[in-house]
Design brief:
The structure holds 2 protein chains of 2 kinds. Chain A is mainly α. Helices cover 65% and strands 0% of the residues of chain A. Chain A is globular, with a radius of gyration of 24 Å. By secondary structure, chain B is an alpha+beta fold. In chain B, helix 2 packs antiparallel against helix 3, helix 6 packs across helix 9 and helix 7 packs across helix 9. The chains are: A mainly alpha, B alpha+beta. Chains A and B meet through helix 3, helix 7, helix 8, helix 9 and helix 10 of A and helix 1, helix 2, helix 3, strand 7 and strand 9 of B.
């Protein structure tokens, strides 16, 4: 069989030739293609969330504006928050989990490739379901946090809350399945010689993120199921008139919600910890401290939830306890920032676009961290909570933090994912525009909040001094949209250009740069072996410049076959949840049909030969 | 391009150093520019909170300058070229790492001492204070004075220099009472009472609004606190009490003014000086108002929980509909004509009155001061 060494692209047998066509995307179980699906979908949702933000900003540009109705405004800010958190930042992180965890580990795929496809399809269906609510004029309208008892049928009789509650439960299935998958992948599929303390920092931080997902998502699921019972079946978990307690929701929501914040930011920490060493040409400073501070942040993340609730009057003991744990988190976060500075200091900084975004991430995240320390203090928080100061804070950590880091990751890994380089000049225009626009949009929010503007108001009266700053913020928001247009232009330009990116354009340190750009389906012709934290740097030091890796036939490598059962099973899962919502209209038989459909799909999935 | 970037970066180093303090000064402003600001505290309670915030602000500002400064310095100092030799491969420095763990820890410990002290103070509800019950409604505020047995809505009067305790609950969904200058913020729950306390240190109007998202008109759920001299406050309470003196007084504003001196002065009875046409309109308004009395009362001493706000002193309030519109006769008439056009989603529906009828009711209500 394998008598001739097949080493040229045109001689690659069809089984590992690059796949094309819609059907190949629908049935793919390749972690890299699923990663791209995640990325394309999440970026689309990101743009939708951005459009919602622009409508919000247009409404708030002037006092007493009537551009949108209060009802629509409430839908807009609810969907903006829900979209950006669950449909944009989380799945954009998942894009990189999918594509790069196996590559950085030196693995051929994730542990459960079909489950991976299932996670994506469930995510897509959940996102579509949430957004389809706009078509019914019933988009969720009680905030992304959906505080009880506003969400009860008495105060929210429409379908709006049902869409939200069902959509989030569908998305939760996706997140949990993905978390199990990546956790197992990291535990079981590391290359030979890759001890845990040799793992690349992005994979480390992603690994911790999976643990957070596994522990936090069950809590929101429980909270949502209780809400579902209240709304559909007449229970009273959150309804005070019948002895329930609305504050129960707040506790459950934030026990999920605060770890969720770290779910959004830890992957960003990981990306920055990859980019800084490569573009400083110097290893990550204090690797062990970086790992343990990440673990410490995640652990403490479960003990701070009630700092979202200082205004609820929990009493001085609880306030003190949650204030102290929250301040404690500043310490490992500070360690991370100082170690990043330590990485860059003494290096030879290569000022490429990914480096710009990572350095800006540090600068912006410091601001978000400092404002966070301010409202970690309950007395200060009694003024700041639910004001625009908090809106500024979360955007400094989630936009200035997560989105800047994710953009850095996009520029850094684009050549690996698509075999094409993004343009450097356009990249820097993108960066400066985004950096300036971001600060113009969100910095004044600190002040407008301290001056008494509450969050989630559809308008404000003239005369309170909010006018100028709101106008600036709106101008910034539209400039921010323009910066995204520059990014999209860069993507289109690269797409039309030649596919000629080298395997290792940035002098990378980790295994993904040791294979072709983009990697073949099986990732590595020969499974790699590592002896240090920066395996590729070590090889280059020993062997000098490495030859460009060639595409190979991959004969003898077994990869899982494409399957459409993950998609069909995903329709079953989404269908079960949606049918619950449809009981008043379609009756129980639809639920039964969906459960049977789900079981049928699972059965076929299980007995499908791979 | 490289030159342009470099020039831009050089500039970027100095521009913030000059502009940030200037911009910050402009942004802090005065309480005249920003009448709902947390940065201009006007009571013992908010000054106490402000003190804690300012500790943190100065610490944060110092950290900001040091760390961002270090970052910018590193970016310029260690900028390299592609063909530069490989820099020294440093993997860490234990002493340094311990140092930058310890310093923030110390800083936070310093911040946390006043924080904890003030946390406990915020919960120490003073005795011998004026008690006020705050009840949140979608989307207006009810204020009750249990010490005097009177109720009002959307405009809270307090005596300057007197300790006030707010006991707060909601009648429907969660709200949050936020008076940035006087009392800061606490959430309102249906099933437990939250308290805030403060002593206003100057007179005047102080605005505040709901800070917990509470549905469609969350953005239009504001209120005013009027801090007055103790004498004015006593007169205000006496006026409210007087609205309950005659049960029949509500349905006939034309009733002759009482001989009670406080009532004459505070109710500012429109009766004597009004021209006959105006008086006729007020009388018709009083008749039409009967249909309103299933949801509203003009008696501040009533203990019935009406659906709508208590209107006993509606004529003397500065704003209508929880600080949505100014309290003018035209605005009040428009509101009565079609509240949904002004504040869509409120419980009060368009009643089917004509503009003329709505104006009559408005004239009648404005006699209740």
């Amino acid at each position: 069989m394998a008598t001739s060494a097949v080493s040229h692209a045109d001689q690659i047998p069809s089984v590992y030739a690059e796949k094309r066509g819609i059907w190949s995307w629908i049935t793919t179980v390749d972690h890299k293609r699923i990663g791209i699906l995640y990325g394309a979908t999440a970026f689309t949702f990101f743009l939708m969330g951005g459009i919602e933000a622009l409508l919000i900003r247009w409404q708030l540009a002037r006092p007493d504006n009537t551009f949108v109705t209060p009802e629509f405004y409430n839908e807009l800010f609810t969907m903006h928050g829900t979209t950006m958190i669950f449909l944009a930042v989380m799945p954009l992180s998942a894009t990189f989990f999918n594509y790069f965890i196996p590559l950085q580990l030196g693995a051929r795929d994730v542990a459960f490739p079909r489950l991976n496809a299932f996670s994506y399809w469930v995510f897509l269906l959940g996102g579509l379901w949430l957004n389809s609510s706009f078509l019914f004029h019933a988009a969720p309208n009680a905030g992304w946090f959906g505080y009880a008892n506003l969400t009860s049928t008495q105060y929210s009789p429409g379908l709006n809350i049902d869409f939200w509650m069902i959509g989030l439960q569908i998305l939760g299935v996706s997140s949990l399945a993905a978390a199990v998958n990546f956790f197992t992948t990291v535990v079981n599929l590391r290359a030979k010689g890759m001890k845990l303390m040799r793992m690349p920092m992005f994979t480390w931080m992603s690994f911790i993120t999976q643990v957070l997902l596994l522990l936090a998502f069950p809590v929101i699921t429980v909270a949502l199921i209780l809400l579902m019972f209240d709304r559909f079946f007449g229970t009273h978990f959150y309804i005070p008139a019948a002895g329930g307690d609305p504050i129960l929701w707040q506790h459950l929501f934030w026990i999920f919600g605060h770890p969720e914040v770290y779910i959004l930011i830890l992957p960003a920490f990981g990306i920055v910890s990859e980019v800084l060493p490569v573009f400083s040409r110097k290893p990550l400073f204090g690797y062990a401290a970086m790992v343990f501070s990440g673990i410490f942040i995640a652990f403490l993340g479960f003990g701070v939830w009630a700092h979202h609730m200082f205004a609820t009057g929990m009493g001085p003991i609880a306030d003190t306890m949650f204030s102290m744990t929250t301040m404690l988190i500043a310490i490992p976060t500070g360690v991370k920032i100082f170690n990043w500075l330590g990485t860059a200091a003494g290096g030879s900084l290569q000022m490429k676009t990914p480096m710009y975004f990572s350095l800006a991430f540090i600068a912006m995240f410091i601001i978000g961290g400092l404002s966070g320390v301010m409202h970690a203090s309950p007395p200060a928080d009694l003024q700041q909570t639910d004001s625009y100061f908090i809106v500024a804070h979360i955007h400094y950590v989630l936009f200035g933090g997560s989105i800047f880091a994710l953009t850095s990751g996009a520029y850094y890994w684009w050549p690996k994912m698509f075999g094409r380089m993004l343009n450097e000049t356009i990249g820097k225009v993108h960066f400066w525009l985004m950096f300036i626009a971001f600060n113009l949009t969100f910095f004044p929010m600190h002040f407008v909040g301290l001056h008494g503007m509450p969050r989630r108001v559809y308008t404000y009266p003239a005369g309170l001094g909010f006018e100028t700053m709101n106008m600036l913020e709106t101008a910034g928001a539209f400039l921010l949209a323009l910066s995204q247009a520059v990014f999209i232009y860069n993507i289109i330009k690269a797409w039309r250009g030649p596919r000629n990116a080298p395997a290792d354009p940035w002098n990378g340190a980790t295994l993904e740069w040791a294979t072709t750009s983009p990697p073949q389906e099986f990732n590595f012709a020969v499974e790699p072996e590592v002896h240090s934290r920066d395996p590729l740097w070590e090889r280059k030091r020993q062997e000098g410049r490495l030859p460009e890796p060639q595409r190979v036939s991959g004969q003898g490598i077994h990869m899982p076959r494409p399957s459409f059962w993950p998609l069909l099973t995903a329709t079953g899962v989404a269908g079960i949840f949606i049918s619950m919502m449809m009981i008043p209209y379609l009756g129980w038989w639809f639920v039964v049909a969906m459960v049977l459909w789900f079981l049928f799909s699972v059965f076929n999935w299980v007995f499908e030969p791979v | 391009m490289a030159l342009w970037t470099r020039v831009a970066c050089r500039l970027r180093r100095w521009v913030p150093a000059v502009l940030i303090p200037l911009a910050a000064a402009a942004c802090i402003g005065t309480s005249a520019q920003f009448p709902q600001s947390t940065l201009h505290p006007k009571s013992d309670f908010t000054r106490m909170l402000d003190g804690v915030l300012m500790n943190t602000v100065w610490a944060a500002f110092a950290v900001f300058i040091l760390v961002e400064g270090a970052l910018v310095w590193i970016i310029f100092r260690y900028r390299g070229k592609p063909d530069d030799p490989e820099p020294r491969q440093v993997h860490g420095n234990t002493a340094l790492e311990i140092l930058w763990t310890a310093i923030p820890a110390l800083l936070l410990a310093l911040i946390s001492v006043p924080t904890v002290k003030v946390i406990f103070q915020t919960y120490e509800v003073p005795k011998d204070a004026l008690n006020i019950e705050v009840i949140g409604h979608q989307w207006w505020w009810e204020f009750r004075y249990p010490d005097y047995g009177v109720r009002t809505a959307n405009e809270l009067h307090v005596p300057v220099g007197k300790k006030v305790v707010l006991k707060m609950k909601t009648a429907d969904v969660l709200h949050s009472f936020w008076s940035p200058e006087l009392a800061a913020k606490r959430d309102l729950f249906p099933n437990h009472t939250n308290t805030l306390w403060f002593t206003a240190d100057s007179t005047g109007y102080f605005s505040g609004q709901c800070a917990e998202f509470c549905g469609t008109q969350h953005g239009r759920m504001a209120f005013e606190i009027k801090s007055t001299s103790p004498e004015e406050f006593d007169a205000y309470i006496a006026g409210l009490k007087a609205t309950g003196v005659k049960p029949a007084a509500d349905s006939s504003a034309a009733a002759p003014a009482s001989t009670e001196p406080t009532r004459v002065s505070t109710l500012a009875a429109a009766a004597p000086q009004v021209n006959p046409a105006e008086q006729a309109a007020v009388d018709s308004g009083a008749k039409i108002f009967r249909m309103c009395s299933s949801c509203h009362t003009l008696d501040a001493t009533s203990t019935t929980n009406f659906i709508g706000p208590n209107l006993a002193n509606i004529g003397s309030r500065r704003y209508l509909a929880a600080r949505t519109i100014l309290n003018t006769e035209a605005n009040l008439a428009s509101w009565i004509y079609d509240p949904q056009a002004i504040k869509h989603g409120v419980i009060m529906q368009r009643l089917g009155l004509t503009h003329e009828q709505a104006t009559m009711v408005a004239k009648y209500l404005r006699t209740h001061r």
